[in-house]
Amino acid sequence: MRKAITVTVNGRACAREVPIRLLLVDFIRDGCGLTGTHVGCGHEGRCGACTVLIEGRAHKSCLTLAVQADGKEVTTIEGLGSRGLPHHLKRAFRRYHALQCGFCTSGILMNAVDFLDENINPDEEEVRRALIGNLCRCTGYSHIVEAILAASAMRHGLKPEPPPAETEPPP
C-alpha cells in the first residue's frame, strides 16, 4: 500500500508517493536527497544519529514513519543555519572540538537544538542527561557538553568560557 505525502524539509516541499511503512530517515535520505541524517543503529532508535526536528521537536527519524510527517515541517542538519552563517551550535562544536568522525554529530546537534529551546540556561548535568539518547563512540562527551554550554551562552549574548587549551605532548 502507498500514500502520497508532502513533507516540508528545511523549508522546501518534498512530495512523493511512498510505501506506508517507509521510515522518515529513508524518505529524507532517498526521497529528498539529504544525506546528513544518518542511520547508525540499523533502525532501532538506540544511537540518535537519525535525529531530526519535526515541528521544532527532536524525533528519531528511524522510528518515525514518513506518513506521520505528512503536512509537517522537518528540519535536518542541512537546514541548521547556512554555509555563510552557521547555526550557533555548529560554531560552538567547531570551536570546542566537539566532534571526531562526525557520524553522530548531526543527531547530537539536532537534539541539542530542541534541548536548548526548552532549557534557557542549562548546567552540565542537564546537558549530559539530554544526551542520553545520542551515542558517540569517538569522544568522551566532555567537548560536546562544553560546546552545548557555550552555544547556550552565545545564544543569550553571554561570553562563553574559552575552549580548553590544547597541551602539547612531551617531546
Keywords:
171 residues, Ubiquitin-like (UB roll), 2 domains, five-stranded mixed sheet, 5 helices, 30% helix, elongated
If you had to describe this structure to a student in words, what would you say it looks like?
By secondary structure, the chain is of the alpha+beta class. It has 2 domains: 78 residues, Beta-grasp domain (Ubiquitin-like (UB roll), Roll), CATH 3.10.20.30; 68 residues, DNA polymerase, domain 1. The protein has a 5-stranded mixed β-sheet with strand order 2-1-5-3-4, with helices on both faces. Helix 2 crosses helix 5. The longest helix has 14 residues.
How would you summarize what this structure contains?
Helix content is 30%, strand content 16%.
Q: Low-confidence segments, ≥5 residues, pLDDT <50?
A: none
What order do the strands of the largest sheet run in, or round the barrel if closed? 2-1-5-3-4
Biggest sheet statistics: 5 strands, mixed
Number of strands: 5
Order of helices and strands: EEHEEEHHHH
Here the CATH topology of the largest domain equals Ubiquitin-like (UB roll)
Number of domains: 2
The coarse silhouette is: elongated
CATH level 1 name of the largest domain: Alpha Beta
Strand content: 15-25%
- Estimate the helix proportion, in percent: 25-40%
Per DSSP, the total helix count is 5
Classify the secondary structure makeup into a structural class: alpha+beta
Radius of gyration: 17 Å
Distance from N terminus to C terminus (CA atoms, Å) equals 65 Å
Instruction: Look at the structure and give the mean pLDDT.
Output: 92
**Judging by the overall fold, what is the CATH architecture of the largest domain?**
Roll
